[in-house]
Write a structure and sequence with these properties.
InterPro entries: Acyl_transf_3_dom, Acyltransferase_3, SGNH. This protein is mostly helical. It has helices at 11-28, 39-61, 67-96, 99-113, 117-123, 141-163, 168-189, 194-199, 205-216, 220-224, 227-247, 260-272, 277-284, 286-293, 295-312, 321-347, 358-383, 461-464, 467-475, 502-517, 536-549, 569-575, 593-606, 614-617, 640-645, 647-655, and strands at 432-433, 444-446, 454-459, 480-486, 522-526, 555-559, 585-586, 609-611, 621-622, 625-626, 629-630.
């Protein structure tokens, strides 16, 4: 890498890097009123697109660009620190993480080592803005996008440059079309599948491309703007950037068109710089320069610092604000150590042979494969482990005074590693619709006794979890059951921070049409109720509209929502095989009483029944396991085995229901 001249160095860009990383760190540390700090990543994307495109264009116009040399520099710049933090994080997790949590960590490490973690998070439907138990390597998603961009962008520029016969204007317009197509794709895909729009390169490439376009456009800043105007517009760009960091929050359907705000603000600041006066002192002072210089390493280390303590406690105890801010501050000196002893030695080795470009590429590939292999081995070791106390627990007995057993028995109804197989949903192919699927309700029916009351079970996964019990009741001839359930899609219209997908809205309309065409005697409604999704007031308003829209001849039944653990109860159990009570949730923390009061009012006004099975799930505490049966499948869903065991209790309640005349 050649020596940079004074004119090539942009202190204002170093200051932008400092702003970007501090926004991200403080956002992840949950600093109040900074709910949009995630826009710092968008700033990084624009900066990367600008610098890389400028470098490629200089090489192409001077006929000195070499692909192998470019990729070798990128490898030396990005991968040593990235892989070092990955390996250290994995080793720390091995020491402190519960076994079940480590299995997930090892899997995520394998994807991260292969530079495709963003694809994993997209496939899993991860909500970056509100994930309750995020991956230890979730912050690597942006590195995955940048690495994939670095792989393809030079090829695209080189190809267009060659075809356009070195015409920079044609290149600029061509890349503008690519950026526009990517932006349109982001806007269209976000309401349909937000995780895919958020994590994948095709819908994020426009942000890096905008930076590239700034590098390709003529130097208008110094020809068309006076220094005063440049400073004024640069300050306005910074104000818009900070404004988005404070005004945005997790309720936005992001990225969509919202990402254009921080992206264009950053592009303006870069395009009009460098600056003088106050703006120069703000972006170019020595403190901003120091933070900007180490920003990459700070970004890498801050997340494991914040996440590992919570992983060690199975996410059951959130970090207090003072501690998360302290850990965020600790990322600065640790970031400097990574910069000084990992980044710099690999970027500028003392005995660098400038023509030896294939060595770093081969080394990076070998290390990536080794780390991925070790991660897979760690994941498999957990999968085959005996996660029980080595002796049987007392057999399960349904009780209104539930308690946790003394140990996790060798006779547990399902291995802890297999807890996800305990999903309680309507049986039959396609009878429970996943989050993104057809909006046509399959209307699966169970039982066919003539004269038996007809029951429709409707709602999201918190309604679907009761299906095994209702199906068992239908099998006895007491009811005829029809299930209309779709994960992530309650029948009422959610407000607050949960934007609904198009197929979810259509599904709701279709279910109401089905109910109107053939009204059941009872409509049993289950929903996930949290203040994250909507306030109790919003829920009450939405439910009043829903209950009014139901057939007049159908009696509504409101199911009391199930407890919601703050973390991962199964991981907690894997760490407390001889003391599962340590993973129980105090009943006072299990429910939001405001929602319960809303349902009390709705039941009184609309003549609805209430189905409350809480006494079988919680006493003073809500145990994760009773006897030899897992009560919960995850943090807020009951297990199929436990729900089925509740069938007699629910049947008794159903026997007391009277259809409307």
């Amino acid at each position: 890498m050649g020596q940079r001249t004074v004119r090539e160095f942009r202190p204002d860009i170093q200051g932008l890097r400092a702003i970007a990383v501090l926004l991200v760190v403080l956002y992840h540390a949950h600093l109040p009123f900074l709910d949009g700090g995630f826009v710092g990543v968008d700033v990084f994307f624009v900066i990367s697109g600008y610098l890389i495109t400028k470098h490629i264009l200089q090489g192409l116009t001077s006929s000195k660009f070499r692909f192998a040399e470019f990729y070798s520099r990128r490898v030396r710049r990005i991968l040593p620190a990235s892989l070092a933090v990955l390996c250290l994080s994995l080793a720390a997790a091995w020491l402190v993480a519960p076994p079940l949590e480590f299995a997930r960590i090892a899997r995520d490490a394998a994807w991260t080592a292969l530079y495709i973690p963003n694809m994993l998070f997209a496939r899993e439907g991860t909500n970056y803005l509100s994930a309750s138990e995020p991956s230890l390597f979730q912050h690597y998603w942006s590195l995955g996008i940048e690495e994939q961009f670095y792989l393809l962008w030079p090829l695209l520029i080189w190809g267009i440059f060659l075809v356009a016969r070195r015409n920079v204007r044609v290149l600029t317009w061509s890349l503008a079309i690519v950026a526009a197509a990517s932006f349109i794709g982001s806007v269209l895909l976000t309401p349909v599948n937000q995780p895919w729009a958020f994590f994948l390169l095709p819908t994020r490439a426009w942000e890096l491309a905008v930076g590239g376009l700034v590098a390709l456009l003529p130097a208008m800043s110094h020809r068309s703007f006076t220094p005063g105007r440049r400073n004024a517009f640069g300050a306005l760009g910074l104000a818009v950037l900070f404004g988005s960091a404070f005004a945005f929050d997790g309720s936005l359907p992001y990225p969509s068109f919202w990402a254009a705000v921080p992206v264009l603000a950053t592009a303006v600041v870069i395009a009009l710089g460098p600056y003088d006066g106050v703006l120069a002192r703000l972006l170019g002072n020595r403190y901003a320069a120091w933070v900007g210089k180490i920003s990459y390493s700070v970004y890498l280390v801050h997340w494991p610092l914040l996440v590992l303590p919570q992983i060690a406690l199975s996410w059951m105890v959130p970090l207090p604000l003072w501690l998360s801010l302290l850990l965020g501050a600790l990322s600065l000196p640790l970031g400097w150590l990574s910069y000084r002893f990992i980044e710099m030695p690999f970027r500028f080795p003392r005995s660098q042979r400038r023509r030896a470009v294939w060595g770093p590429l081969a080394t990076a590939a070998l290390v990536a494969v080794l780390v991925a292999g070790v991660s897979v081995m760690g994941m498999r070791s957990v999968a085959s482990a005996e996660l029980n106390a080595g002796e049987p627990a007392p057999a399960f007995t349904l009780s209104t005074d539930p308690v946790a057993p003394a140990l996790i028995g060798s006779n547990l109804s399902v291995r802890l590693q297999d807890h996800q197989t305990q999903a309680a949903i309507p049986s039959g192919s396609g009878c429970n619709l996943p989050v993104l699927s057809s909006p046509i309700p399959p209307a699966c029916t169970y039982g066919s006794s003539d004269g038996a009351p007809t029951v429709a079970l409707v709602g999201d996964s918190h309604a679907a979890q009761w299906a095994p019990a209702f199906e068992a009741i239908a099998a006895t001839g007491q009811i005829t059951l029809t299930a209309h359930t779709k994960s992530g899609c309650p029948l009422h219209v959610r407000g607050g921070g949960s934007a609904e997908s198009v197929d979810c809205a259509e599904w709701k309309e279709n279910v109401l049409d089905v109910l109107a065409a053939d009204p059941p005697d009872f409509v049993v409604i289950g929903s996930s109720l949290t203040s994250w999704d909507q306030s109790p007031e919003e829920y009450e308003l939405a439910m009043r509209k829903l209950l009014t829209a139901l057939p007049q001849s159908s009696t509504p039944v409101l199911i009391q929502d199930t407890p919601r653990f703050p973390g991962a109860p199964m991981s907690c159990l894997s760490q407390h095989l001889t003391s599962p009570a340590a993973c129980s949730l105090p009943e006072g923390d299990a429910f939001d009483s405001a929602f319960i009061r809303v349902e009390d009012r709705l039941s009184e006004q609309f003549g609805a029944y209430q189905l409350d099975l809480t006494s079988y799930i919680c006493a003073d505490t809500c145990p994760v396991v009773q006897g030899n049966v897992l009560v919960f499948k995850d943090a807020h869903h009951l297990s199929k085995t436990f729900t089925s065991a509740l069938a007699p209790a629910i049947a008794t309640e159903v026997a007391g229901w009277t259809p409307r005349a």
